[in-house]
Amino acid sequence: MFLLNICFISFLLIIFFSMLLFMVSIYFMLYDLVYFIEYNLIEINSSCIVMIFLFDWMSLIFMSTVLFISSLVILYSNSYMLNDLNLNRFIMLVILFVLSMMLMILSPNLISILLGWDGLGLISYCLVIYYQNVKSFNAGMLTVLSNRIGDIFLLLSISWMMNFGGWNFYFYTEILKSNVYMMMITMMILLASFTKSAQIPFSSWLPAAMAAPTPVSSLVHSSTLVTAGVYLLIRFENLFNSEYFINFFLLFSSLTMFMSGLNANFEFDLKKIIALSTLSQLGLMMSILFLGFKFLAFFHLLMHAFFKALLFMCSGIYIHSLNNFQDIRILGSMFNQMPFTSICFHFSNLSLCGFPFLAGFYSKDLILEMLLMLNYNMFIMMIFFISTFLTVSYTFRLIYFSMLGWFNMISLNFLNDYDLYMNNSMYFMMLMVVFGGSMFSWLMFPYNYFILLPFYLKILPLIIIIFGMIFGFFVYYLNLKMFKLKFYFLNMFFSMMWFLPIIFSYGMIKNIMYLNKEMTLSFNQNWMEFYKSSIILIFLKNFSGILELFLFYFNNILNLFLILFILLMYYLFIV
User: Fold this and answer.
1) Per residue, what are the HEC states of 395-448?
2) Which of 79, 146, 240, 453 might form a disulfide with 205, Cβ 3.0–4.6 angstroms?
3) Which residues constitute the domain of residue 520?
4) Is 401 within 8 Å of 326 (Cβ atoms)?
5) Higher-pLDDT residue of 482, 421
6) Residue that terminates a domain, selected from 243, 262, 295
7) Three-class SS of residue 320?
8) Is residue 73 included in any domain, yes or no?
């Protein structure tokens, strides 16, 4: 009962602060306010260590979203982790995780950003290895080492910022656009964000992080860990939006979006499909950010947080009810036995597709229409629309697997969705999925975009959705059996993320371990043996010879004294 009280008190406190920050963010938005708050931590003579917080409408509204989702995740964990013996430790880790994200959101200073950034990486490792089995440990190590690459780039950018006499990058984003040092810092920040947001070639850790408990996945993949890189780039957007090298990053982020959408059509693990959809949406946010629309990227970031958190909550109830099975092939006719969960699941899936007038529609449709108005090449336009098509395809494939056909597990089952805590958390999240898109679009874009398109381009996103639904049914119906028999290598290539896990995790680790073995053999057992044994032995033999000479004279010390006395007398007599 005490643990349940901790969860419920945490939920009430966090949701209160979320509502408060939302009201304050509306006030800041109306009056276009930006506040810097400095707190002097330590002052020794002329040296000051100052903590700076940046409050504007963007940081406040993002903090409100993160706190809202984390409060509902804690309420959801009340039932999901009920039989866990370490529930209090789990809740404390989640709260620390959210506090690290808060520190990162509020900081205009690279050093305090690094504190939050490292806190996210460390606590995500603790949460991924929470179940403490071999799969969890492997996934946790892959996660923390991939994120460590980004930490290194962030540390390097901190050292380069020494050229400007301070680490408050927010003051330099306008005046130092053409500075060579600032260009190097921007490049490092881009690479750090690519590792945290799992873009190519660092994509392999994101599906592996599914070893964490489902409430953690709901929090991590919606609004905290993976979105930290996107949020940092939104803050740095003024520095890279006019650079020539940005097209390379645009290419990699759009390829991430395409690759993850393609792989999700060949995946049967429920949580991995949703993780790959997160990867696809992160690629979309990065791509539209590199095209120069930071407010659109931020808008989609918020909308994605709502429907992805709800999607993970629904999948968690499915997995919980199916005795921890995650294969979508055992699902079927779930609507008959779990109606409320299935409704929430469908609403979040449709929002992910960009179905009209749900949360995802307001951001994705606006992104696609702005892309059609840009003077960009055909490759970028094609990869955006093909990725949207693949998103609809794997989403409806998942819906067909869960709704059509018969339930493919045991006949005697206990499927139900009568849990009060889980249902309440999903209910509040579904309200944001249904009404959040229109509400946030009115708040963030008070002046309408003027988008002038011919009729066939205006309805192109809707046509993409319809064809994606048909293709998803086609993939579901074939169930990939024919494809597996005829094109086994191609199926492996698509389902294993273009062999990125093999190349950038197993391959690298294997080669490094092999090199380590060879160096151990050659250095420790050849060269070091020669230096440690042979040369030291020769030195000791020579040294012992000199020592024997000294010992000979030392043993005949009376003779030595007599000789010296005679020589002294002879010298005195001559003088």
Assistant:
1) HHHHHHHHHCCCCCCCCCCCCCCCCHHHHHHHHHHHHHHHHHHHHHHHHHCCCC
2) 146
3) 508-574
4) no
5) 421
6) 243
7) helix
8) yes
